[in-house]
Amino acid sequence: MVSQAKIIVTAGDLKIDISGATVEVDARLIQMRHDDTWSIVLERLRDARDAAIDAAIDAARDIGLPERGSAFRALLETCSLYKKPDQVLAAIHYLRDVENIKDSPPRVVNQLFSEAEIEPPGNLSLYLNRLKERGLLMVPLEHGDKNRFSLLTDAGRAHLDKQSVS
After folding, report:
1. Can you spell out the DSSP letters for 22-74?
2. Residue 58 and residue 93 in one domain
3. Whether 104 contacts 127, CB under 8 Å
């Protein structure tokens, strides 16, 4: 029994429609990679994605959604988070839960503070390690001990909630 495969990709005016036995489809894909057809399709898809992201950002600006920095600053002010450890904890919460960013190296966290016009934490690892020691942050096992993948624990969320009502 010969297994069948089918690939259909449309990128602008370029359409790829390959079907047949898996071996034949694989061979045609290899040929497309050699003659740059596949690269052209991927480039058009990247361009379309980038255009969609730019359009979404422009639309958000047009309807008055806050910029990243002002949104983070508003979070800190609304919750009365003035201590740097609490601000770092809130930054991790904001990046993970609001922006859905899973990997946040120090430059990303510092950039968030800068965009909010708040002094960045400086030695971010020190803050993150202390927050982990207090049980407010954790790093999933699959990421080893890399602070850039820190997540709030339930205790971390409770701590932020407690700060916002104090």
Report:
1. HHHHHHHHHHHHHTTHHHHHHHHHHHHHHHHHHHHHHHHHHTTPPPHHHHHHH
2. no
3. no
Look up tokens 């071996």; give the residue.
Answer: 23
- Nearest 5°: phi and psi at 165? -100, -10
Alpha carbon distance 54, 56 (integer Å)? 5
pLDDT tens profile 4-38: 999 888 777 778 889 999 999 889 888 888 888 88
Straight-line distance from the first to the last Cα atom of the chain, in angstroms, rounded to the nearest whole number: 69
24 and 95 housed in the same domain: no
Rounded to two decimals, the pTM is: 0.61
**Domain co-membership, 160 together with 92:** yes
d(CA 102, CA 113): 18
Neighbours of 110 (CB within 10 A): 16
